[in-house]
Each structure stands twice: as C-alpha cells, then as structure tokens.
Specification:
The structure is a single chain. The chain has 299 residues and is of the alpha+beta class. The chain has 2 domains: 12-162, no CATH class; 177-273, Beta Barrel (Elongation Factor Tu (Ef-tu), domain 3). Helices cover 16% and strands 35% of the residues. It has 4 helices and 17 strands. The strands form 3 sheets. It has an 8-stranded antiparallel sheet with strand order 11-16-15-12-13-14-10-17, with no helix packed on it. The longest helix has 18 residues, at 12-29. The chain is elongated. The mean pLDDT is 81.
Amino acid sequence: MATNPYFKQGVRSEQTIYEDIIIEALKMYGQDVYYLPREIVNKDSVFLDDVPSRFGSAYKVEMYIENTEAFDGEGDLFTKFGIELRDQANFVVSRKRWKQLVGSRLAENNFRPREGDLIYLTLSDSIFEIRKVETETPFYQISNLPTFRMTCELFEYNDEDFDTDIAEIDEVEFEGAFQYSLTMDSDGILNNLSGTTGEKYTPGEIVTQSGTGYDMKGEVTSYNQDTKVLQIAHAGATDGKFHTFTTTQQVTGAESGRVATPTLVTELQEIQQDAQNKIFNDFEADFLDFSESNPFGDL
C-alpha cells in the first residue's frame, strides 16, 4: 500500500524551520572553532599521499561538542616513546552554516568537510584532526539532513606548514617543527632591494643561502636581536638533496632584505626536550665498539 498522500514529510517550509532551529541551538550551546582545510602541496602520484601538507587559512564557525563529561578516546598513554595523548571529540556543524562560512570559499570543500582537515578548539586551546565525517546523522528527519557530524582525534604535528595569521594556531609550528639555529654575525646589512621592508628578520619570511649548484631555503620562526640567533624551520635545498646551512655564505631575507653570515649553525630538537640523540652522538665511542671484524660470530 502506498503512503498516505495527505501527509508529507518533505515539506520545504518545515525543513527550513527545522534547520533554523538547529542553527540557533548551535549558536547558543556550541563553541567558536576554526576550521583549517589541508592544502595539497606535493601529492605523491604512487601512494596518493601529500607529505608536505600546508594549512594557509582558518575559518571561524560555530560547532557543538557532543562530549559532555570529558574527551573520548584512550586518553593519556605512557609508552616507551613517551606520553601519547589520544583524546577524541565529536563535532556537529550545520550544513547551511558550513556552506556560508567555509564551503563557498573553497570550491573543493563545497560538498562537506574532509578527512585530514583540522579543527582548532579555542575552549581547550587544542587542535583536532578529522578522522570521519558522518553525513546522515540524524537520519533523514522530515526527509532532511541538516548537519555534519565529525569524529576527530587530537592532532599530532608532523612538520606541517601553518600560515593562518592566528598566533595561537601558528605557534604549533614554531614549537614543534625541526629547526636550525643560526647565530648571525650581525643584525644584517640592508640590501636595498625593491619590495623589501627594511626590518630585522621577521617570523614567516623565507631566507636563502646560496651554495654550489643549489640554494638552501627555510622559513624564519624567530629572531633574537640581543643574541642574534635566527631560528629556521622547513629548511631544504632546491636540488632535492640533503644539505645544511653553512658558516661561509650569507643568509638573505626575502621580505626584510637583511643579509648576514652565520658564525654558528646548530640543530634544534624541540619536539622532545629530554631526547638523548645528541648525547649518544657525542659519546658513542664510550659504549659502542665498531672495531669488530665479524659481527656474526667470535672469529
């Protein structure tokens, strides 16, 4: 038997009222968060992976956190590699508000949020990575799907590039990225190139040091005028091979126009402050014997 033709569930006016009520509830009981879309920098055509990811924009939108007592997940785990935080959270956002504030600005994200994108929760000052997006919850009430439900996990930094111009978000890169520390011989001589600011080395600008057949480039994370220490992240050579900064060539700032020569180059390991890799490297001769001629026996 067919359904009753005098009762309709998909009435557009009722769907609009239902959607507006949800938006109002999210504005009342939700939290302001920032949505960070992941940008493809260099996609691997074989494994279809984007290793050097970048987050260059952040969009403010209201979302509701379903977790009422605490974050889900396994919590804090003590492993042989240190403490791992595996908090999880579920976020709900209105489809209509998503399209207005985010989707309309990003053509590739217009359909729905994507797995791998980030959500910055200002309430706890933490960043979550989207693991799964549920598009049919709640399930077709009055024949409508008004929300997205996102299952997220606490973000683990992996040398991504953050340029959102929001200090609370970008500091993740400055604190967790592998960096070079360059002690400069001066604050730098102004090269007077057109388009430069003339300021000291500024965070976010790209610096370059020329080598033989390649250029070393990196992003400035900080510069201390008192100690003249310049810290650089996301460093790499233009020829695709491994090189480091040297004390024989000048370092030029693309925006500041400053030119100076490093007197000391060291590597910073800020990800784990108590890591012992440098100690092992300095004192390996005390407990490692590489003089064994036959490592597979006593001969």
